[in-house]
Please model this.
Amino acid sequence: MADGEFPWEKIVRPLLDWYAAHARALPWRRDADPYRVWVSEIMLQQTRVETVIPYYERFLRELPDFAALAEVPEDRLLKLWEGLGYYSRARSLQKCAQTVCSRYGGRFPDDYDEVRALPGIGDYTAGAVLSIAFGRPEPAVDGNVARVASRLTGTRAAASDAAFRARTAESLRGVYPAGECGAFTQSLMELGAVVCLPNGRPRCGACPVAAFCAALRCGTQAELPLRKKKKSRPAFDRTVFLLRCGDCVAVRRRAPGGLLGGLWELPNAEGKLNEAEASAWLASLGVRAGELRALPPARHVFTHLEWAMTGFSAECCAPEGEGLRWAPPEELSGTISLPSAFRKYARFFP
Ligand code: SF4
Model:
């Protein structure tokens, strides 16, 4: 069956009934306030629900509305985001809040084009906020929903295929149930998250729309959705230094733009340095370090590349070094946001 021929209208009621009975009680579902819905949708991009929950609760406690988010100092914002990764999301979240405050007086707009024009908001997020918070018939096709649609229709298009996602959104838009738009969006997301699971593991026996599923009928549910061949991710060697001076550890600010731009880091050099090269690199920074001790190797995977990290720790006799800040433990845990790649070595401090 071509995916355009799927009887989308038939899945609406079974999905809504199933969602009403089985929806997980998640903190962002307590009310449909646009700010809460929007923050949760941005946090949930590329990040698991269980990971997001404590971040979300803390974030909402400290920054309860657009005005608070628009005004929070960037360092504090990044600290609240520390460990979630993809820090550009936090920055564009703030830019969006500033725009909502300056252009709309702190109220999220409810017009599709206006929402779509806000910083950091794509088709998916616009659909999610408009349907969940405003009850508009706007679909939100993320990876979960695309996987469900792919299996239901039995398409040979990859789930990441933009044209397939656009066709799916268009088909769904035509069957959104008046008065239950938010529940319908969430029912599709929920089905993908807890029943129509990825990696060939769908729980078809628990699926409320199994009767309509082309993949189940053809026995192809484990092989769909088809994937586009992934580009291989280049790996780069990096040598990371945990430099201590008394109670403090050396950190520095990364250059703005690019990977982890503007964030704090442990001093680090390109390449896999041996002890002599590491000492020479530290000397070039103006750091007089004592004996270098090797730390275990570590690996960190970013979206488009990965780091294979070699680590050294050393005591320094004086808090000096070009561009370094010597941070006590309370700063490291309280105010300085250190990306996860460097936390792999910062855990050896103090
Ligand atoms: Fe997914 Fe199975 Fe339901 Fe089809 S029947 S939508 S493969 S869980």
